[in-house]
Structure formats: structure tokens, C-alpha cells
């Protein structure tokens, strides 16, 4: 039987804005520019918008699938595909969420190691983050939503850091506009969509929303806000760097922060990297929570031991991953899986669900 | 000390003489006989608990009267209300302990009259010391429950002002009152408070702070979850908002809840000042608290790891101030922070006048000397002193203690991982606060869950015309405080 | 117990306590006879009273990071480069070897800021770094000369970021300020023009202002003096300058026109009265002067085939698809570049 979520554990619809936005904005934004600008170059900002716009449709599909259901996607899949295949698909979700959190955590640790503390032990920082994650998850979904909320609100001052490089902006870098073929721009948009993934956790926390359908507009706003932020960062990057310079930069956002100079502080990137912990933490919390919750509705086991087990898995994964190339491979893999889920599986599920609902009604 | 009580339990008092024998072991227990009376009475009381005046003016003359023959006669004659005639040993026992005079007919008979004649030594209502305000009422609670309730009731002359009373403590038997406005305060909050008070298992309640700790949602949190105040005006005001207040007999502090984190940083004086000024002061307080919390950890982090952050104009000052100092920044900071804590603790334990001297001696002499001796840098000295000042701006004493304490874990994290450590410590605090509740209501409200209407009286205080609704957080039964003024027509100049 | 905790904790990451490190503030590279690079670095030492003395280290090397370990061997505290203010390259090094290999190390190192100044030293680098400039740390002294001149003065905007920006950019070549040591002072002597990472020529200091006008939009407090005739001259200040390109025949051989408009205020006038006619004349003189100097600069960079003004990049921004790097390289020296100056005097000071 499917367990209903008690009213007291539910969250207000507007929080979906923060949940959707905070998980989209992870470590990716520190260095997505190079990959996205590779094919579309100065037109990369169009790709940012295009990829963002496509999410609008995906989100609509997601809400349409979840409409009138009281369960999460795991439950829906088991209803539609039966116990076996549904269970298998559920496992895929769990693995995906776990891989997502491991990637985010490991990439952030890498940033810290490259930029701030070359001698930082991976396990130490990973442990600190996972303890924080557990402490957060133990407070229930309301606390997870809370940390997402503050993960968006508190680091707002970093936006200033994005604006400072405009002092050295060369706006002609954006010219000529639309000088790339639609194919190039779409290819870049595909690369861009890798940064946008993650909001699929909505499939899991949907039953935790009061008046879930009312949250639709908030989810859309969340995505819109993400697109705006990415767009801002992309445009700043394009006008701040020359194209050939950008091609060499792994973390273009961080490098851009180096130019910030305030009377009381120089070298903003150190503040930025440190503050980014507040941005990364909700990411990990939400995806581990989603994995735990999904596993719970799949296995009917208690969420606490499951979560502890998952945290252990992530801990081991972060230790085993060493160096730039391995992390890149993982990032790429998770991005690709996310891409297929968003543009392949979700439309598929939508159609199957439509048929399922028709048949059931008859 | 309470030997007699133990003995009573061991032996089991069955008869009145046994009880008398038990009490007789105490030196202040008196018993007299009036044999010359036509009807001889025996009289018992605890000398230390009975008011001499009442005894000699209102009781003694009537006992000696010829017309008084029985206890009923006595009850009719003596001008004191609520005289109980009973043979219940428990009641007699309680009566004696609370300052009643017990009178028994000399010929025997089990029934006794219990006449209340308690003596009350309480200090007069005086000006608040902890929550002093320049403007506004200068009344503070005293150690008597009745007196305190009186101070509040005077400000809320309405019939739905309700007071529930419970006795808590096996030994102290403290009277605890729960105050609220019926029809405004959420029933659930009141019930939670009463339920938690009834569940308390303890022998003594010596102050209402015992209660605050015993009924708080998470006793293992350094953060207070209920506000205690010595101002009757503040209590009256929050009762009007729909909160619940708890008073204990013998304690000059009222506890109010449910509360929010920002409330700990709002002084009641904020309501006496113009809203612009009050908001500015509140903002200053928040900045001061953040500053106080983060400045020394940031100093340690930057000087230990992030020399790149220091502007080049500041570099020379910082380096030369630290040139002669042998200790790493963390030890330097902990040394100074501890020195300040020592000064504070010494000042708090000593009588006021000596305390002030200690403050000056400590502040100036130790500070200057340690800089000159090369133990600490003068830059850090300024930061630590400012941080201490910042923490003292918090109006609720408990909260300022918390802020000073949690600075130390921040320091350790700063030493461990620099700025990243500070952020991680901050995340830890944030999650802790997110999990924390006050009587079941989230303590970070109105920030999270975000309740925009409640922001009117949180980080800033908007004018009273904006305050026409009660806080959403309290889920009050009547949300309207007063009807907001009707929208004024926008007039043109000089019209 | 407490101390135990601390010692455990401190094992985790590398500490760089601010008074236990050697902050490199300036570094210079020189080319020796047998193709060896000599690195010279300066470290400020602050005493408790806040006085500064400078210690200079010297070592020869191939990779610039190798320098640090050589310096470390003779220093009481470890070297860190996070506070580097200035990197100097000798003219010889910049002309013969190119500087990109040395710059690559700076680019790769996350602790180097983007506002570090790079400069070419026309006189001996190690002398410039070893010289005493009074009670100030050498790196800061050098960087402040460059900083205020590029912020508000006549030096075109330059720093580490803008150098690698134009180094990597297609259709633009970088430039660096050229410094000379003059007794015990350092002076900006002009602009070192680069083709990719090699210095190919220089503009002398009289062209600094005009170069800035051609290069970027700016406002400055510096004074520009115009000679009306032999003994009458006028100085203008508070100069605001804007620059615009226009192109013709983009797809074949582009013809470029650089328009710039300058507004200024008269600060000093050695004649008797400032009449509208005089103002007109000052404006005309300035225009003529700027035009002459601009044409000199342009013909020089075209001769050197160094696109310091970024004209290629402008052309590229305006052509679709047809752009080709190779073709532009061939075209650039021969394209026509016209200059159209426009000077306006807005105020004449507080006296008539």
C-alpha cells in the first residue's frame, strides 16, 4: 500500500520555487561556459535560453503525469508498468539521484582542492558535508526545503560578484549575433541542458506539496530564475573573455571573480568558493533525500537506515574518484543520463501514463 | 533539613497527635492552650510563616471571647475569609506549611479550624534591571505570583484573560500560572503548555527558568526557545498578540512562547520609539550580532589561510601588528576571547561596584598589557572588543550568552578550513535553527517558512498602522488585532 | 585535551599564516647570454613599527615555478605568490623569446590575481627591482605607478587580464607599458607593442595619451597641453573621450574610420583672454595634434603588423561567415585607417 504524507509534513507551494531553483544551480555554474560556448561561441547565450525554454515543456509534462496522483513517480511507475519493471525503473531513479549528489559533492571538493586548499583531504570535506546532510535530512523534508530556501536567499550577494567583471566588458564580443547555424546552437543547447538537470527530484517530493497543482507556476518561476541567472553569467563571461581565452578556462566564473576588488577585500573568488558551500549543500541534501524517499516507497523499509547507507555509498564514491579526468567522466555520465531522462523518458512516461489513464477510466 | 517529611513517609501519620509530634521537632512550631476559656482551644502554627499582626489582631481576641464556644462560632466571628473546618490531616498539614493557624477544641475531637494568616515578605515593584528602557513603564515583576498577575491584569482588563494554575515540584510545590487570552491565543498552544507543565517530574522549581528549560522543545540546544522577561508591559503586549505566558511563584521572570528567533533581538523599547528609529536600531542589533559571531573567526581564517584577501593597503598594518606574536592566530583569538569571557564572568559574580572596577581594570590594563607584551595583536584586540560589545546589544540575556558561546566552534572551524570552515559552521547552525521549534512552531519564522505578513515586525518594525493583524505564526483564533485605519484619500498639496 | 584537538585539527590543510610567509610582490625576468632566464623577486619585510624593507632574491631557471623552490632554499619563510603585484619582463626577453611561457605559469596558478600588472622594462630588470624607492615595498610602488596612471591617467587600461584577453583574442594583439629606471624613480616610458607574445616595437611616451584615446573610452584628470604658437599654450584637463569605429567595404578590403570625441575643460591659458575664437582655435589645434599622432601610431602598428587597436576583432564582429584569420593577417598592413577627431571645450575654468 502506498503511504500518504501527513499534512504536517507538507510544504507550501511557493517553496517549490526554491526547491526547483536551488538544485539546478550547483557547481555547474562555476564552469559551464567553456563547454556551452564551444560550438555556439558568441551565440551561446541563445542556447542558454533555448535549453531553458525546453524545460518549460518538460515541466508541464511532469505536472501532467503527477496530476491527480497521490504518490511519487516510483508508485506511478509500479502502477503503470507493474511491480517488476516499475521496481527496476525505480532503482534507476535512485541510482541517478545518488550519482547526482556524488558528482556535485566531488566536483565541489575538487574546486576547493584546486583553488583553495591543495592539501585538503577528500574524505575530510566529504565527511563534513555528509554529516551536515544527515543532520539536515533527519529533520525531515521541511528542513530540506528550508535549507534549499536559504541556499537560494543567502548567497544572493554573489550575484554582485558576477556584475563586477562588467567593468572590463567588451560588448562587441557578442557580435555578430546569430552567426551560427541552428545545428550549432542546438548542440550547445544540448550541452547547456546538462546544467539544468536535477529538478526531476520534483517527481519524488510532489506528494509533499500542499495543493500541488498550485505549485506549477512556482516551479516555472524557479526555472525562469535559473535561466536568468545562467544567462547573466553567460553574457558576462562572453563579454569578459575573448573566445579563445574562454576555451582554456575550466572554471570561468571563478576566474572572473578574480577581477573583483573592493576596498576591504581583494580576490573575491575565495569568498565565492567558500560561500558556494551553502549553494552545494541543498543540492546534496535534496538529491539524497529524494533517493532515500524513493527507496522507501520502493522497498517499504525505513528511510533512516536507507539514507545512512546511501550516505556511506556517496562517501566511498567521493573518495574513489581521483583527479580531473575521472570527475569529468562522472559529470558527463550523469549529465547524459539526466538528458535522456528529461527529453526521452519523461515524454515517454507521459504518453504511457495518458494511455493508462484512458484505459483505467473505461 | 526536611527530615520531618521523610519521617512522615516512613511512619505514616494517622492521627492528629502524630502530626503535631512531627512538627514539634521544628523549633519554630508553636502550640498554645487557653485553659482559662470556658471552651479551651489548642492553637498550632509555624511562627516563621504566620503574620504576627493578623494573629494578634484578628484571631487571638476572638478565641478569648466568651461567646465563642465551638469551631463554628469561631468561623463566624473571626474576620478572615475561607476558614476551613476539617479533620483531613493532609489539609491541616498543608495549612500549617503555608502559614495558617490551626485551632482545635481543647477537649479533643478530630476537627480543626484552619485560618489563613500567612506572612508575605516581598520586595516592592521596582524598575527593570535586565530589560531596562529609557522610555516607557518602569515596572518589573517581583517574586510574588499574585503581585505579578496583578501587574498584568491591570493592563488587560478583559474577561477573557484566563489564568490556569498548576502546582509543580514534589518539595517546592510551586504555584505555576499559565496566562492567555481566550478566543485569541491558539487553544493548541495553551494545551501544549499545560500538557508539558503537567508532565514535569521534578522536586523543586526555584525559578521560572527551570520551567523554560523543562518545557522547551529541544533541551540540548544552546539556543533558548522561550523568551523570559521581567516586564509586565511586554507580557501584556504578547498576550494581546496571542501568545501564552507562564509565571511561577517566587520568580520575577515570566516566560512567553511560542516565539521566534528574531524576537530575541527585539527590545520592548522598540515599540516606544518611532518606527523608523526602532527599525534602524533593530537592524543595528542584527548587524552587531552577525559581526560579533563572525568577525574573530574571519580574522583567524583570513590570517591563517587567505592572505590573498587582504587589501594591499591593510597588509602592512596586519603583518606588523602580528610580527612579534609567537602564537598562531587561533590561539591568539582564543586567548583574547577567553580573557573577555573571564572579565564578564568575574563581573557577573561580583557585587556591582566591584564588578565595574574589574571591567575597567580588565579591559584597559589587560588589553594594553597583552598587546605590549606581544601576546596579541592590537588589530585583533579591537575586533574582539567590538565583538563582545556586539553580543551585548542582544536584548534577551539568554540569547547573548548563546551568541558568545557559539563563537568558539566557529573559531575552531575557521582554524580548520578557513573561510570554508566558517561557512560550514554557519550551515550547521542554520540547519540546527531550521530544526528548532518553539512550542512546536518553527523558530526561524517569518524567514522560514517565509511569512511576508509577519515581516512587519521582524527585522524591522513597521508603524502601528501596519500592525493590525496578529502574527500568522501563532495561528491565533482571532487574527484581527484592530481595524486598520481607513484608507486616506490622497490629497493634493495644501488641500 | 584542547591542545590535542588543535594539533589534530591543524594537520588537515596547509596553513599560510600571514606573518610566516614571504609575500612575493614583484618578480622580474631577464634573458642572459646563453638563453637562460634569470628571475629576480622582491619580498617586503615589515617590522613591528610598520616600516618596510625589501629583500631581493635572484636565481636562474627555465620554468618560472622552478624559481620558487630556488628562492625557498635561501629564505627563512616559504614563498607565496598570491600577493604578486607586478611582473616585469626585460625588453630583450620580450623581443627575443616571447613571454607567453612565463605568463602561462601565472595563468595556471589560481592564487595569482587578475589585476596583476605586467610591464616591459627597457632598462635592466634586476636593477629596477633592486633599487630603493623609499620606505615602501617595491612591488607596491611599481604597481601603484601603473595603477593610478591606467585608472585616471594617460596610460591605456592594462593588467594581467587584459593582456591575456588580447593575447588569446583573434584580431587583436596585446600591448604592455614600458618602464624605465631613472636614477631612483621608475617612469612610464611608452608602450611596448606586441605581435602575439613577442615585443615588436614601441611607442614613446608622447603618444601615451593618443594611444589611450584610440584604444578605449575613458575619462581622466590628466592634463593635455596644446601649443597655440611659440609662447602661447593652453592646458586642458578633465578629459572625457569616446571612440567609435565605422567601416566601409567590409567584405572586400575594409576601410576603417576611427571617430573619437573629446570633451575637456581649460585649466591653464598663457594668453590674455579666452574668447570663443580662442576656444575654437584650441579645439582645432588639439584635433590636428591628435590626428597627427594617431596617424603616426596607426602607420607604426600597421608596419609592424600588430593589431594593437583590435581592428580585426571589430571587423570580425561585423562580418558574417566571411571572416578568415589568414586573410586578415595579409590584409591588415595595407587597409586604410582614417582618424576623425572631434574636440569640444566645455568650460573655461572659474575665471573669465
From TrEMBL, chain A:
Record-linked Pfam families: Spore_permease
Major location (coarse): membrane
Transmembrane segments annotated in the record for this chain: 12-32, 44-63, 84-103, 123-141, 148-172, 192-209, 221-241, 270-292, 304-321, 333-356
Name of the molecule in the record: Spore gernimation protein GerB
GO biological process, one term: spore germination
Membrane topology of this protein: Multi-pass membrane protein
Family designation: Belongs to the amino acid-polyamine-organocation (APC) superfamily. Spore germination protein (SGP) (TC 2.A.3.9) family.
Coiled-coil intervals: none
Highest taxon of the lineage: Bacteria
Cellular compartment(s): Membrane
Native source organism of the sequence: Exobacillus caeni
Gene Ontology terms: cellular component: membrane
InterPro entries per UniProt: Spore_GerAB
PANTHER family: SPORE GERMINATION PROTEIN A2
Keywords: Germination, Membrane, Transmembrane, Transmembrane helix, Transport
From TrEMBL, chain B:
Record's protein name: Spore germination protein
Keywords for the protein's UniProt record, in alphabetical order: Membrane, Transmembrane, Transmembrane helix
A Pfam family reported for this protein in Swiss-Prot or TrEMBL: GerA
Transmembrane residue ranges: 286-305, 379-398, 410-434
InterPro entries assigned: Spore_Ger (IPR004995), UPF0353/GerABKA_families (IPR050768)
GO cellular component term of the entry, any: plasma membrane
Keyword check for Aminoacyl-tRNA synthetase: no
PANTHER family recorded: LEUCINE ZIPPER PROTEIN 4, SPORE GERMINATION PROTEIN
